[in-house]
Design brief:
It contains twelve helices and 21 strands. With 453 residues, the chain is α/β, with parallel strands linked by helices. Helix 4 runs parallel beside helix 6.
């Protein structure tokens, strides 16, 4: 998780901000926090438009720390969770901001069992939203005047982002004060990143915009104190800061990329030692989780096997032709280069490319009989070999170290019409000595929810 820049806005701001989404994106805006959602259809369309220009939209839900009776608090928190789960059905929603999760007076909460109720609410709402979508950003805003370091530490165990609201109305004094509050929050946070909420005007009674230079200087102070983001309160009452310049860090584009999951289909691993030997094969995944493994690992992410030069693999007196795994993955796939393949050319295409990449007849046959039916159904496909992406995100460790490792991963995307794309250059591969071969692929159009096992 890295840097973020954004605005708070109301639902009635949607019409105007929609016209400026492209401009905001060009100025480095990554996130919008939307309050007061009532028109779900309108909000859903807005979220989709924002996503097209790489801006994430979060639903902002205010949580009032009402200390009435314990029963009423329980009902209130249940309503908040129910409301969040309802919004979670919005397509492309990036996450949620729970506002005003402040630490009220200890003695007042103790009287009504408020602390335990509040802590239970935090754990439950995060758990239920993670169950719906593990990729949600879940954030909490706080008033620094009403929050202790211990409370920030607690919240940071569950939330991805904590946003201290360093507003004029919360007694913001000067840049030194912004620096101090940000630094204190950073030091007390265990896991959460600190994105600071900055007010863009004097106060509600005197809603005069702060100057662009003052907002910019305040934002710089946040990053100088190791904060990771700035959220401006609020849209429509703020000068538009350009966060795309060199004054601000820009690796925020790598923050937990908002990507739909896909299936990594049938990577299979062949082993060809020069002499019979015991071999350890380990597969480590990034941004992915195993969905199927066969035979089962006999150690964490690891097969310990006995292999022969003819490719036979033995585990506990049972022999296999290869080791098999599949995974749900969130890694990006680079489809900027590749090959346009018509269904009638698919068989020849696969035979030709797999020979270049070093697969033997048996391996090529296994590959083709698995992937050819998809290319025939598609009629027209974009095929791209994800060599570097496969190496970077699916680490394969084999002991003893092989002399040759061939890893082939093909991403296939169905096309409705011909497109112009730079043809991929494939490097010929020569096998020598102890050789390990792995192949797999992905149907880019396939979605996790469409899959059954």
């Amino acid at each position: 998780m890295g840097y973020g820049y954004g605005y708070y806005l109301k639902e009635n701001d949607i019409d105007q901000i929609t016209k400026e989404l492209s401009s905001l994106s060009s100025k480095g805006i990554t996130d919008l926090f939307l309050d007061s959602v009532s028109n779900i259809e309108k909000v859903g369309k807005f979220i989709s438009l924002a996503k097209k220009v790489n801006i994430r939209v979060h639903i902002w839900i205010s949580v009032e720390n009402q200390l009435k009776s314990q029963n009423k608090n329980q009902n209130y928190y249940k309503q908040i969770i129910s409301r969040a789960k309802y919004y979670a059905s919005l397509k492309d929603i990036a996450g949620f901001l729970f506002g005003d999760l402040n630490h009220e007076k200890e003695e007042d909460k103790q009287k009504k069992g408020g602390i335990n109720l509040f802590n239970q609410f935090v754990k439950q709402v995060v758990l239920e939203l993670r169950t719906i979508n593990k990729n949600f950003f879940i954030s909490a805003s706080i008033n620094p005047k009403k929050t202790t370091g211990k409370h920030i530490t607690f919240l940071s165990q569950y939330f991805d982002i904590i946003i201290p609201k360093i507003y004029k109305e919360n007694d913001i004094k000067d840049i030194e004060w912004i620096t101090k509050v940000t630094s204190d929050c950073v030091s007390n946070s265990k896991k959460a990143k600190i994105w600071v909420g900055l007010q863009s005007y004097i106060n509600e009674k005197n809603p005069v915009k702060l100057s662009l230079s003052e907002i910019t200087d305040n934002a710089k102070a946040v990053f100088n104190a190791q904060g990771k983001g700035v959220i401006i309160f609020k849209w429509g009452l703020s000068e538009n800061v350009d966060f795309s310049g060199s004054s601000f860090p820009h690796n925020y584009i790598t923050v937990k990329p908002y990507r739909p999951p896909h299936i990594v289909r049938k990577p299979v691993i062949y082993l060809y030692p020069e002499n019979p030997m015991d071999i350890s094969v380990q597969v480590n995944l990034k941004e992915s989780k195993f969905s199927t493994v066969y035979p089962k690992f006999n150690k964490e992410n690891t097969w310990n096997v006995h292999a022969k030069p003819n490719g036979d693999i033995t585990i506990l007196d049972k022999t296999y032709p290869y080791l098999f795994w599949e995974a749900e993955s969130y890694i990006s796939q680079n489809m900027n280069k590749g090959f346009i393949v018509k269904s009638e050319d698919a068989e020849n295409f696969l035979e030709e490319k797999l020979k270049i990449l070093g697969l033997n007849d048996k391996e090529s046959t296994d590959f083709i009989t698995y992937w050819l039916p998809l290319l025939l159904r598609n009629k027209l496909s974009l095929c791209s070999f994800q060599t570097q992406e496969f190496f970077n995100n699916f680490e394969l460790n084999v002991t003893p170290k092989p002399d040759s490792v061939i890893r082939v991963f093909l991403s296939i995307k169905k096309l409705d019409h011909l497109i112009n794309i730079e043809e991929q250059k494939l490097e010929p591969f020569e096998r020598k000595g102890f050789t390990v071969v792995e192949w797999g692929g992905s149907d880019v159009n396939e979605k996790i929810k469409d899959v059954t096992y």
